[in-house]
Amino acid sequence: ESTSFAVRVAPLGPHGQVLVLAEDQTERRRVEAVRRDFVANVSHELKTPVGALHLLAETVQDAADDPEAVKRFAGRMQHEAARLTHLVQDLITLSRIQGGEPIPNPGPVSVDEAVHEAIDRCNTRAAAKDITLVAGGVEGLRIFGDEDLLVTALRNLIDNAIAYSPEHTRVVVSARQVGDVVEISVSDQGIGIPESAQKRIFERFFRVDAARSRATGGTGLGLAIVKHVAVAHGGEVTVWSKEGSGSTFTLRLPAHAAVPEPRPSSPMEA
Ligand code: ADP
């Protein structure tokens, strides 16, 4: 990559002195290129389901006198529309958190509750592949952050663990506190991630195997969302993986200071 400078010359003194400002444009150009790539990727990802919907609508019209076919094509239209919704939802989530703005509702969040809520939301998909979701060691831990964002990040990690694992396997969500950091790990016994790809999987729209990702309904944004949730909390997400034997993603988030909080006991609670 070449380095480029923007040079500005401003007249300064009566004797023809000039002020020369050279500004390094390399970073600005890189950011521009990333933005352009992103817009191109989004357009491409949107075009695929929209194109499919167009085709299906035409086909339904042609098959008007065959109720069975109409039903089948309508089902596929629903599937494409769901994919579109998923993509738009992920884009909205990403745009909310990647701007470097503070997290929306910071406060103490029960890791136990967040993990169980995420597991509940993923249960149907897990059951369809006879994958067992297990939580361990999550009791009593609290992070300081945003509950919805934590659940979103965990759902994305668990969803991936299910999507990239064979049937009849286990996905384990475990947590522990190390100093003032809570570590939450999601481990699977799935296909794993080649070492060369491990540092790229958190990029928007990066997929190891695009066909496989689409087949499982992936948007290519899940891990980018997880990364931005971690960063927005002042934390991080890392991956350990071995091809053919599984992956472990670990979120490290700030623990809620161990200040004993009075339990609210308003009549509203009952
Ligand atoms: P996608 O919607 O494609 O799953 P993600 O951003 O969630 O997008 O993940 C990016 C890519 O990382 C996936 O396409 C897949 O190749 C790989 N990946 C993510 N999680 C796992 C996992 N648990 N096991 C194996 N590969 C994974």
Automatic annotation (TrEMBL):
GO terms for biological process: cellular response to phosphate starvation. It comes from the Bacteria. Its EC number is 2.7.13.3. It catalyses: ATP + protein L-histidine = ADP + protein N-phospho-L-histidine. Keywords: ATP-binding, Cell membrane, Kinase, Membrane, Nucleotide-binding, Phosphoprotein, Transferase, Two-component regulatory system. One of its GO terms (cellular component) is plasma membrane. Its main location: membrane. One of its GO terms (molecular function) is phosphoprotein phosphatase activity. It is found in: Cell membrane. Residues 41-257 form the Histidine kinase domain. The keyword ATP-binding applies. The keyword Disulfide bond does not apply. It is an enzyme of class 2 (transferase). This is Sensor-like histidine kinase SenX3. It comes from Thermopolyspora flexuosa. The chain holds residues 119 to 388 of 390 of the full protein.
